[in-house]
Design brief:
This protein is α/β, with parallel strands linked by helices. It has two domains: 28 residues; 171 residues, Rossmann fold. 35% of the residues lie in helices and 23% in strands. The strands form three sheets. The chain has a seven-stranded mixed β-sheet, with helices on both faces. Strands 2-4-5 form a three-stranded mixed β-sheet. It has a two-stranded parallel sheet with strand order 9-10. β7, α3 and β8 form a beta-alpha-beta unit. The N and C termini lie far apart (45 Å).
């Protein structure tokens, strides 16, 4: 009798999972975001491969158009050997063209920490109600632009002090969402970061 009950419970669970998968278009927690335009800003040298490739791949799979911006045109290089063709210079970015702006991490991302153009993009993104996202050490750019003051945020642990010095509430989570600002702490959080972005864009 107990075995029969267990089989029935397992079947019910499987049917629920299938129904949920069908409702979500077969993609679990990943909604369709057709027509959404996303800008990803990467370091020209030493962006973090997973933090670009995983979100970019998932966003495009779910219907978004992704544009890559950097400080130089050409082929940017990742820390682990990935290559990415830059579509537009950071100085030529028009925030109004996008639904979301994402700053990708990696050791080279510190080139934007004190960059006036990058900080202007951050400020305009927030002021116009767009989605602003950053992963790994890139949330430091957001903090130095002044948009994380009083906001919950996360970052690669080595840079916690830089966020707190600018008034951010460091949570240490893999991914943190505070209104229209999404931050993540490193490459292991790249897929979860992408899912949070897609949910916010839905």
């Amino acid at each position: 009798m107990a075995r029969k009950f267990l089989v029935c419970a397992l079947l019910a669970g499987l049917l629920f999972a299938c129904a949920k998968s069908e409702k979500d278009g077969g993609n679990g927690e990943m909604p369709r975001i057709d027509g959404k335009r996303v800008l990803m800003i990467i370091a020209y040298q030493n962006f973090r491969d997973e933090e670009l490739l995983q979100p970019k791949g998932l966003l495009e799979k779910q219907g978004a158009t992704v544009t890559l911006a950097s400080s130089q045109l050409g082929v940017a290089s990742g820390m682990l050997g990935a290559k990415a063709t830059v579509d537009i210079l950071v100085k030529d970015v028009k925030v109004s063209d996008y639904n979301a702006v994402i700053f990708v991490g990696g050791s080279g991302a510190d080139e934007y920490w004190d960059d006036a153009t990058a900080q202007a993009i951050v400020t305009e993104t927030v002021n116009t109600g767009k989605l602003l996202c950053a992963i790994c050490i890139a949330p430091v750019t957001l903090a130095k632009a002044g948009v994380l003051k009083g906001k919950r945020a996360t970052v690669f642990s080595s840079e916690r002090g830089k966020l707190e010095a600018e008034g951010a509430i460091y949570t240490g989570k893999n991914v943190e969402v505070d209104g229209k600002i999404i931050t993540a702490n490193g490459p292991n959080a790249a897929a979860e970061f992408a899912r949070a972005i897609m949910k916010a864009l839905q």
